[in-house]
Design brief:
mainly alpha, Farnesyl Diphosphate Synthase, two-stranded antiparallel ribbon, 16 helices, 72% helix
Amino acid sequence: MSVNATPSPSAAPSPIHAVVADDFAAVNQTILDQLASRIPLVETIGQYIIESGGKRLRPLLVLLAARALEYQGDRHITLATLIEFMHTSTLLHDDVVDESHMRRGKATANDAWGNAPSVLVGDFLYSRSFQMMVEVGSMRIMEVLSAATCTIAEGEVQQLTNVGNPDTDEAAYFDTILGKTAMLFEAASHSGAILAGADERQEQALALYGRYLGLAFQLVDDLLDYEGDAKAMGKNVGDDLAEGKPTLPLIQAMAAGTPDQARLVRRAIRKGGLDHLDEVLAIVKSTGALDYTRQKAEEMAAKALAELDHLPPSPYRDSMAELARLAVERKT
């Protein structure tokens, strides 16, 4: 598969992308250029996962944050691209760890090529992202991104230790999703702010905006695992339960349900699999656990919106506000 191919339709701009359409097109082209390798399998797997229908939210945050503060250079294109590579490398590794077979409606790379190539191409993308960090030329940005990658890895390990553990509480859950998901959102908007020369309050606001947006996004992801449409999501309903992951819908169902309901959910988490899926689905609905999870997502989105008050009015800020709203309204 040639890396000089036209960017896939999956990377086409949405209405939120419209204000940075030219930047976004440049990012898509830079992604293709930076996938170049003398090893054909690296290009093949890299392009397969890059083109598999992702929303490109993290690079979008870089572009919007930088432009919202009137950045006029071109290093935000490199920065946005390397953020996408960091994210994609974590997807490749996560699918191996989770033994996943489907992502975004397509076979995972590990399912198509095996675990070893997937891990190694993930390593390539991660290494390439650090090459691009050097090109960006900001020690502050390198500090933010390197710290973020450590936190992300810790979050993934924490999630692994939570698997099959029904005693995982809400605080531990939020700590996990802050690390494994929200931290890269935060790093994206934060690094965009640094690149644009933000003042201290604007820098903090954009970092927190990304954090709260990432938390809202993951909360909705975990909610959709129990009420989403499998075809639209590109994964199976109940995947988290099958893997024994105690996400917030299950944690709240145990807290709000009857002793019998709590015992059943605890047993389902310990055992994993889908033997109790129908019963668990009924419990997370009847206990209000899904509504509770959505309420938490809405709270995080509201916090993200509040941080935008520290930015000057602009179409870029408006798009960031719309992104926060859509994060909790989405169905996929």
